[in-house]
Amino acid sequence: MSTAFATIYDFLSLGNVFLLLFTLMVSHYIMVLYEFRGMPPGPRFTAVPVLGNVFSLDSKAEKLTDAFRSLRQNYGPVFSLKLGSYKFVMASTPESVKEMLIKKSTEYAGRPQTYSVQTRTLGGKDIAFGNYGPSWKFHRKLFTSVLRQYVSDIPLIESRVSVQAQKLVHFMQEQDGKPFDPADCLMRGVADVICGITFGEGFDTTHPDLNKLLNLCANIVENDDVARLVTVLDFFPFTKYLPIKAYDRFIQPFFEMFGIIRKFLREREENFDPAKSVQDFISGLLCARNEAKMAGDGERSAFLSDDYLVNDVEVMFAAGYETTSTTLKWVIAYLVNHPKYQEDIQRQLDEVLGERSPSLNDRASLPLVQAAIIETLRLGNVGPLLLPHVTMTDTTLCGYRVPKDTIVFADTESVHLNPSCWKDPTDFNPYRHIDKDGQLITNQSNFFPFGAGRRVCAGEALAKVKLFLFVSWILQNFTFVPEVDGHPPELRGIFSITQFPAPYKIRAIQRK
């Protein structure tokens, strides 16, 4: 009899366990449905506790935009999901991207303050990843005002870029028509421009500390597996308490970079003369700090602490060289694949320039150079997803509810490859940016390589200057051909922090 009672007891206990689990699961999905009420459609019943919709993503995808592809197909171009403890919304249409970036720019101006972001920015103290607020607005204004002095001083910026472009041309001449990988020389050419603007005339990557700074930046980009893992781990806040080495491997290079930058700041501050005009980015920052100190402005002085200035310099250096050099790699790869367009550009360069060197004053007369750059930015998609935004308040997107603190991605790659926006969108065709009168079409409405609105890239104007001069210089002097005739570079993007072309070699044939 006791055995029978024990069996019944065990059965009832097991039944209670199943009932409890069933109740918990039902409660979980009711909470998920309530949490996402009125939000864009998305997978609800695959949202498991703690992990969210992790298993709804394409685990074989090489980049984040591809991981979301099946969700776009199933739920439409504007959808939502949950990853870890965060709600996400993906905007993939021109209308939704414009609404969040431009129409409702302030409402979507935040940035997610995850563990890795907070750690690598010393508490969110940079203008790329810092959250929207008084300190961000102050530094954004300071950053752009200091940078504007260079972009508006045409002779100065032209001189600094042209000197490095000449060095790049000389390096390519030394290759004597033999195959080489242009990645390193392009990276160093652009980085040397940024070194001069940031640290002062005469500074370039031959300086041991700046060479180390460049190598640290390059290692961060190349170590994409760690960056991807940290991105995923950030969705689950509890992981910061676990002994995961990926965080240390990802963050350590940033701390090494900050150490180098602090050294430069100390040296420059010791010899700082406020009576002198601003000659570089660092002196502009130190000038602002001195003015705040002299005015006794405690709030401004707090915003100009070493931690803030170190982040400003790091953003200026890292963002200033990486995206531009990657775009140049794409330009060469596309033009080697499309020699007819390369010939057309060179013909226009010859007609306009003759034997003289390119100048920024030639931009209006060289629409094909600019069109090739624009088309490369559209099709190469160096940043296929803009940096994530966070809603600062409850808002809407395309009529759907988007609660405060939702992470929202602008999938600009989908817009740039949208057949309703661009004819034959996967074809490289610079002439799509030239009007019937042969002039450059500006202000394309479905073109967001630098973002838009309050979070638009602060270095956009400088990037355009560098791209125009570098492309003009190298195409005036060389014709780029495949390493082996008939086998041009593969136009396959590899996604890390940016999307860069698969490594390739080309030959630079000196033009007569």
UniProtKB/TrEMBL annotation:
Asked whether the UniProt record includes Cell inner membrane among its keywords, one would answer: no
Keywords linked to the UniProt accession? Endoplasmic reticulum, Heme, Iron, Lipid-binding, Membrane, Metal-binding, Microsome, Monooxygenase, Oxidoreductase, Transmembrane, Transmembrane helix
Name the record gives this protein: Steroid 21-hydroxylase
Highest taxon of the lineage = Eukaryota
One of the Pfam families matching this protein, by short name? p450
Could you tell me the membrane topology recorded for this protein? Peripheral membrane protein
Q: Which residues cross the membrane?
A: 12-34
Subcellular locations according to the entry: Endomembrane system; Endoplasmic reticulum membrane; Microsome membrane
Q: Tell me, what is an example of a GO biological process annotation in this record?
A: progesterone metabolic process
Query: What EC designation does it have?
Result: 1.14.14.16
UniProt KW Oxidoreductase keyword: yes
Cellular component (GO) terms are: endoplasmic reticulum membrane
Chief subcellular location: membrane
As for family, the record states: Belongs to the cytochrome P450 family.
Molecular-function annotations in GO: heme binding; iron ion binding; lipid binding; steroid 17-alpha-monooxygenase activity; steroid 21-monooxygenase activity
Annotated heme binding sites:
457
**Cofactors required:** heme
Species assigned in the record: Pocillopora meandrina
